[in-house]
Amino acid sequence: MLNFIKNFRRDEDGAVTVDWVVLTAAIVGLGIAVLASVGGGTADLADKIEAQLSAQTIATY
């Protein structure tokens, strides 16, 4: 039992997993922040494009 506890304490596989989880959470958080900041401008631009395209007329000859 004592050897199991010593091996468990020296094992670093869990620490690497925690590092990857923290890194992944940071990337996801950054992505959400970018979407939140760009989303409003994108919707506004889409509305302007829609208005411009709706105002166009098709010439039939």
Structural overview:
It comes from Salibaculum griseiflavum. This is Pilus assembly protein. This protein has 61 residues and is mostly helical. It has helices at residues 2-10, 13-55. The radius of gyration is 27 Å and the shape is rod-shaped.
Tag the structure with descriptive keywords:
61 residues; mainly alpha; 85% helix; 0% strand
Q: What is the strand and helix layout of this fold?
A:
Layout (H helix, E strand, L loop, with lengths): L1 H9 L2 H43 L6
Protein name: Pilus assembly protein
Organism: Salibaculum griseiflavum
Keywords: Membrane, Transmembrane, Transmembrane helix
State the share of residues found in helices, binned by percent: over 70%
Q: Rg, please?
A: 27 Å
Mean pLDDT: 87
Cα distance spanning the termini: 92 Å
The number of distinct helices, counting runs of at least 4 residues, comes to 2
Percentage of residues in strands: under 5%
What are the segments in which pLDDT stays under 50 over at least 5 consecutive residues? none
Protein name: Pilus assembly protein
Organism: Salibaculum griseiflavum
Transmembrane segments: 20-38
Keywords: Membrane, Transmembrane, Transmembrane helix
What does this entry show, briefly?
Keywords: Membrane, Transmembrane, Transmembrane helix. The chain crosses the membrane at residues 20-38. Helices cover 85% and strands 0% of the residues.
